[in-house]
């Protein structure tokens, strides 16, 4: 028996598959979120150095991880779309960008809220903070480029090129910012020496990471579905679908 | 390469474009003392950063012209159809852009540095970093210019796409001058700038060529 690997690369069959998968991931996300927040707020002990304020880590760290990870995933699918001319991959990449930008913003925002009680300042020009900010710029550049192009196929390809250029540049930017930072020795805070965490803290954080994963998958699938409907509105199966939905 | 000659000729025929970029650079640099005050110690510390940021903005300002005229009169399509490798053509155009916008900045920078009371050795380092860095700006900028070809609000979009990618050049360009003034070696910065130049020489024309193909489809 041969498996048809490409069955779900067609927007029409992916649309129904995504429809079935969204509730699963949404439910998993909600359940993990509740569990993670419970562990984070009630089970994990108070930190002896940072007091209660450290608990923002349960939002901050998953958001920061997701922001970086989603950019790579986005560039990967955009690249696949560019190389093999598959419509669905490009749609998927477009759907990832807003979620990635949102996580980047959350990471920066919660970082500022965390920095205030810990370091006494909202913002330091630390290497990690600066590169996270630049990552936000890259996301915004990708989204605004796609938004400015009317033809969706051109938008896909142009976005793919800028995403790939961004991926090549991210390590360069990261190390530049790091060297720039060590050269200046400005702020005397270091977030590199994280104190070892209690296992319940780690557990809470990991649960929150999985919750963000599930959330991202659910939201991205949902957004992909919307993009599919929008772009394929001229096709027979969408018209068919509209009739069905309308009757129901 | 014929294309470099052609672009240079076009630039000479339309001198105002070149001069606008140069005067933009001079004006931006001159605005800083007016806004932060004429204290010489502070200005000296700020000078490398100010000159570099102004160079970044000036080089970005002229990016739109790299392809837009050729695009609107159809020359660009002919270039795409020509048997020449598109990457090489793009390399030629980026080189011409650098000759027209980058070189005047490099020549002007020491004079502006004197206004900021930079020591003569730092002036030399500033000129060398600009000489190494501005071609990178033209090469990376070409990608952005090619992607935003013919779009509404293209010039604003270019800045959004290209400025984050300029950051490494800015860091090491301004960093070399600062390191020199602080008495630490600046050779490492120059090597890194050279490395950026080589990497972008290889990758940027290729990325620009595929962007042009996307934009002209």
Structure report:
The complex is a heterodimer of chains A (248) and B (217). Chain A is an all-alpha fold and 248 residues long. Chain A has one domain. Chain A is built from 7 helices and no strands. The radius of gyration of chain A is 21 Å and the shape is globular. Chain B is mostly helical. In chain B, 86% of the residues lie in helices and 0% in strands. In chain B, helix 2 packs antiparallel against helix 3 and helix 7 runs antiparallel to helix 8. The longest helix of chain B has 30 residues, at 86-115. The mean pLDDT of chain B is 87. The A-B interface holds A 134, 137-138, 140-141, 144-145, 148-149, 153-154, 157-158, 161-162, 164-166, 168-169, 172-173, 176-177, 179-180, 183 and B 143, 147-148, 151-154, 157, 160-161, 163-165, 167-168, 171-172, 175, 178-179, 196, 203, 207, 210-211, 214-215, 217.
What's the helix and strand layout?
The complex is a heterodimer of chains A (248) and B (217).
Chain A: H1 11-43, H2 57-84, H3 87-119, H4 127-148, H5 152-184, H6 199-231, H7 236-247
Helix pairs in contact in A: 1-6, 2-3, 2-5, 2-6, 3-4, 3-5, 3-6, 4-5
Chain B: H1 2-13, H2 15-36, H3 40-61, H4 65-72, H5 75-81, H6 86-115, H7 120-147, H8 154-181, H9 187-215
Helix pairs in contact in B: 1-6, 2-3, 2-6, 3-6, 3-7, 3-8, 6-7, 6-9, 7-8, 7-9, 8-9
Structural class of chain B: mainly alpha
Give the biggest sheet of chain B. Answer: none
How confident overall, as mean pLDDT of chain A? Answer: 82
Proportion of residues in β-strands of chain A: under 5%
Q: If interface size is counted as residues with C-beta under 8 Å from the partner's C-beta, which chains form the largest one?
A: A-B, 27 and 28 residues
Helix tally of chain B equals 9
Secondary structure tally: strands of chain A:
0
User: What is the percent of helical residues of chain A?
Assistant: over 70%
Comma- or semicolon-separated keywords:
heterodimer, A: 248 residues, mainly alpha, 7 helices, 78% helix, globular, B: 217 residues
């Amino acid at each position: 028996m041969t498996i048809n690997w490409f069955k779900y690369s067609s927007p029409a069959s992916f649309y129904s598959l995504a429809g079935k998968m969204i509730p699963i991931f949404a439910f998993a996300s909600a359940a993990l979120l509740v569990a993670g927040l419970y562990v984070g707020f009630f089970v994990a002990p108070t930190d002896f150095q940072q007091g209660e304020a450290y608990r923002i880590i349960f939002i901050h760290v998953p958001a920061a991880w997701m922001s970086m990870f989603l950019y790579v995933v986005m560039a990967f699918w955009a690249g696949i779309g560019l190389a093999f001319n598959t419509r669905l991959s490009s749609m998927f990449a477009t759907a990832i960008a807003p979620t990635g930008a949102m996580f980047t913003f959350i990471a920066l925002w919660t970082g500022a809220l965390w920095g205030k009680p810990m370091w006494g300042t909202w913002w330091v020009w630390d290497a990690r903070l600066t590169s996270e900010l630049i990552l936000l710029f890259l996301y915004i550049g990708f989204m605004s480029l796609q938004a400015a192009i009317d033809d969706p196929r051109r938008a896909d390809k142009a976005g793919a090129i800028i995403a790939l250029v961004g991926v090549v540049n991210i390590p360069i930017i990261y190390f530049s910012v790091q060297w720039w930072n060590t050269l200046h020795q400005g702020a005397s805070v270091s977030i590199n020496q994280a104190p070892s965490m209690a296992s319940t803290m780690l557990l809470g954080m990991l649960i929150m990471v999985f919750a963000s994963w599930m959330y991202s998958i659910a939201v991205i699938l949902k957004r992909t579905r919307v993009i599919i409907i929008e772009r394929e509105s001229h096709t027979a199966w969408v018209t068919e679908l509209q009739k069905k939905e309308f009757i129901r | 390469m014929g294309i470099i000659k052609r672009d240079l000729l076009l630039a000479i025929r339309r001198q105002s474009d070149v001069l606008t970029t140069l005067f933009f650079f001079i004006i931006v640099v001159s605005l800083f003392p007016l806004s932060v005050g004429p204290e010489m110690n502070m200005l000296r510390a700020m000078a490398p950063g100010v000159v570099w940021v102004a160079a970044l903005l000036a080089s970005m300002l002229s990016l739109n012209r790299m392809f837009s005229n050729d695009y609107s009169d159809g020359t660009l399509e002919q270039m795409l159809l020509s048997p020449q490798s598109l990457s090489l053509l793009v390399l030629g155009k980026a080189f011409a852009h650098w000759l027209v916008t980058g070189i005047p900045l490099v020549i002007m920078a020491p004079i502006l540095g004197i206004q900021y009371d930079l020591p003569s050795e730092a002036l030399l380092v500033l000129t060398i970093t600009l000489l190494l860095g501005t071609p990178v700006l033209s090469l990376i900028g070409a990608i952005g210019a090619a992607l935003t070809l013919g779009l509404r609000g293209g010039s604003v979009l270019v800045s959004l796409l290209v400025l984050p990618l300029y950051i490494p050049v800015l860091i090491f360009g301004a960093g070399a001058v600062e390191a020199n003034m602080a008495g630490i070696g600046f050779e490492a910065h120059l090597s890194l700038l050279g490395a950026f130049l080589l990497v972008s020489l290889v990758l940027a024309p290729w990325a620009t060529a595929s962007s042009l193909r996307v934009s002209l489809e």
